[in-house]
Design a protein that fits this description.
With 694 residues, the protein is mostly helical. It contains 24 helices and ten strands. The C terminus is likely disordered.
């Protein structure tokens, strides 16, 4: 600016233009002389040599061949010197702050993902970094060594998919009036939706519910015990995620109302919590509660992170894609296709909903069948269930042990010690940030010397040496059979696990390796009319002598405490009141040319349902399977338990118990013949013939 001012004053002092033919160097020297005559101070000394002039010009911009900076007219090819024009354009002031840019990280499933600066601040906290120490699949890594990914990776992947979907709506359907705040709120909710998970995935939640039920069933329970039991029974990881979200913002002084953090208000914070919970904060929509974070014009945003209507949300897309890739090595593009093709439509009731293209109907069914497949192959693998049951017993034994230590961040001293039950009941978020998969090591190394902790430590050692429980059998509820059979199965399903164990043990009575002496048949001298062969008599006598030599300590007898019952309802995870219904019938679809319709940009396209005939070849044999897994704690009694379960299955008219489910997946329905084709004795001539599903 000083040079420009001096050049202007020099021109007013009467500097003459150089005559035609004067070189640019001579013109520049004339300009310098006129400026010097005006007695204006220079901010920098004037360079007189041609080389220095060229160097200074290169610093400011482009120059011609002689070193003179190009004038604005030089861009058209006419190089002239004009001392009255400024030699450079005014520079942009540097006092204004630049907007923070999104940071980028690499994900093995989705590639490069962008993270908002406000979300990055949340990630770099103690509360969120805890997710690095929580495995996504719990104990599946003991069976599938590659399934070691954590909740941390999954949450970032959900954040990426959610932001990508909202960005697509903003670009392709501007009539929805989505803002940058809406996008940021959805991304924050997707990032924080699993922050409240305890150790070992959903296993921790099941342990808390079991502890609460036992407290409620205790006749001697006090009012305090009943209060604790209600807290444990009603505990969910979604509500805990909201509490951790509040603790994270408060403890780390993250103010989301600042412009650099998104400029969110109280209504936006409520919107984030509703997205995490998947329902209104006061209760469910079925009970009459409504969402308050966003109105009906943006109600479809609640289906992105947690979709209660159809079950098709970015959370499910990410964990199915990530889990199948880590555990089974499968890579599917179906989830990406559905994310990139979803649009907002208006259903017949006038509600804005998410819809998918009708040519992706089989891809939608693939999502549901993939979930059932993952439950059968990975999530409910028999070894995984056995390890889950052992960990459950360990936590039940250590529920009163104060193994969680909270230290002062300034001094490093221990402030308090608590059990994990106290941490949950007291809503101690600082202590909860120390609760992760390392809890087994805390129990193993705990200095407490009680009977419960000793038993828990022994179970941890069994787990480390793979001295595991055994699977005694698998009881499958035959839904849809005869009314009498179904009633019998339904009655058994509604019974308590302990009652079912007692019934199974009744069929094991007398099935011991060394039976009591009184059970050995003896001959009476008075029964002279009974004819007994000499070989049979010798066998009976030898068996009697062998059993007398055995002590009672060597006898094995199956007891109810040796068995564990685990109930499972495995379905597609779709919407609707009935788990046995077709989930695709709750999904809306749109025509492939919907973008050409009037009102598409505002979400006014009318969706429709697709007939089952278009995807019947991809349907499973059953949409929901109910099973009871029977485990045996004592490995020495595993044979007795298997025999007892087989007899119990025969009595209940169930298939013979096996150690792994065989009817959950990969059973397509034949269009012509129904759920299955029974060939009987008439098999096809060519056993290698492959029949088309369509």
């Amino acid at each position: 600016k000083t040079r420009e001012r001096m050049a202007t004053k020099g021109a007013k002092a009467g500097s003459k233009k150089p005559p035609k033919g004067t070189s640019s160097i001579e013109g520049f020297l004339t300009k310098r002389t006129s400026l010097t005559a005006s007695h204006e101070p220079f901010s920098q000394p004037v360079m007189c040599s041609q080389d220095n002039d060229a160097t200074e010009s290169r610093k400011r911009g482009r120059t011609d061949g002689s070193g003179e900076p190009l004038s604005p007219a030089s861009h058209d090819g006419n190089v002239t010197s004009n001392s009255t024009q400024p030699s450079e354009q005014p520079r942009r002031p540097l006092t204004k702050k630049c907007k923070p840019r999104d940071k980028t990280m690499y994900c093995t499933t989705h590639g490069n993902i962008e993270v908002h600066p406000a979300i990055w601040k949340m990630i770099d906290t103690r509360q969120y970094q805890r997710l690095r120490r929580c495995k996504q699949l719990g104990h599946a890594q003991y069976v599938f060594p590659g399934a070691t990914h954590t909740r941390f990776e999954h949450s970032l992947g959900v954040q990426h998919k959610a932001g990508k979907l909202v960005k697509r709506f903003m670009d392709n359907q501007p009539g929805l009036n989505l803002t940058a705040k809406d996008k940021l709120c959805v991304e924050i909710a997707a990032t924080m939706h699993d922050c409240g998970h305890g150790p070992f995935s959903h296993q921790f939640e099941h342990v808390l519910h079991e502890i609460g039920k036992k407290l409620m069933q205790n006749p001697d329970a006090s009012e305090a015990d009943i209060k604790v039991a209600k807290i444990l029974i009603n505990w969910t990881h979604e509500d805990q995620s909201n509490k951790m979200f509040d603790c994270l913002l408060l403890a780390n002084k993250i103010d989301l109302s600042l412009e650099e953090n998104g400029g969110l208000d109280a209504k936006d914070i409520m919107f984030i919590k509703e997205l995490i919970r998947g329902s209104p904060l006061g209760g469910s929509e079925e009970d009459g509660f409504k969402f308050e974070g966003r109105g009906d014009d943006k109600i479809f945003l609640y289906e992105i992170v947690s979709n209660k209507r159809t079950g098709l949300d970015v959370d499910r897309f990410d964990y199915l894609q990530r889990d199948s890739q880590a555990a089974l090595g499968k890579h599917s593009k179906t989830f990406e296709k559905l994310t990139e093709s979803a649009i907002v439509c208006t259903d017949p009731k006038g509600r804005l909903v998410l819809a998918f293209p009708e040519d992706e109907v089989q891809g939608v069914m693939e999502v549901y069948t993939t979930r059932m497949s993952m439950y059968n192959k990975v999530y409910m693998h028999r070894k995984t269930l056995i390890i889950d049951e052992m960990v459950k017993d360990i936590l039940m034994l250590a529920k009163d042990s104060k193994i969680i230590q909270v230290r002062d961040h300034a001094t490093g001293r221990i402030i308090r010690r608590q059990s994990f039950v106290e941490v949950v009941c007291n809503d101690d978020m600082e202590a909860f940030s120390h609760l992760d998969d390392s809890i087994l090591d805390m129990i193993r190394l705990s200095p407490e010397d009680t009977d419960e902790m000793a038993k828990a430590s022994l179970l941890v050692q069994r787990l480390q040496t793979r001295d595991l429980y055994t699977m005694a059998g698998n009881l499958c509820i035959q839904d849809g059979k005869t009314d009498e059979c179904f009633a019998k199965h339904r009655e058994m399903w509604n019974q308590e696990e302990s009652i079912i164990c007692n019934e199974i043990v009744q069929y094991a009575r007398g099935q011991t390796h060394t039976m009591p002496e009184e059970e050995v048949p003896e001959t009476d001298g008075e029964e002279e009319d009974e004819v007994i062969h000499s070989s049979q008599m010798a066998l009976i006598e030898s068996e009697k002598d062998r059993r007398k030599s055995k002590s009672k300590k060597d006898m094995l007898e199956l007891l109810p405490c040796d068995l564990r019952i685990k109930k499972f309802t495995v379905g597609t995870g779709g919407g609707g009141s009935s788990k046995f219904a077709d989930p695709v019938q709750h999904v809306w679809f749109y025509n492939n040319d919907a973008s050409e319709y009037e009102g598409h940009e505002m979400g006014l396209t009318l969706p429709h349902k697709v007939s089952a005939e278009h995807y019947k070849c991809a349907m499973p044999a059953n949409f929901c399977i109910r099973e009871l897994k029977v485990l045996c704690v004592d490995t020495k009694k595993s044979k007795l338990a298997e025999a007892a379960v087989n007899k119990y299955c025969a009595y209940m008219e169930m298939p013979k118990a096996i150690n792994q489910s065989s009817q959950l997946i990969d059973s397509p329905v034949s269009i012509a013949e129904g759920p299955s084709v029974d060939w009987g004795d008439a098999m096809p001539e060519d056993e290698n013939t492959q029949f088309s599903q369509c």
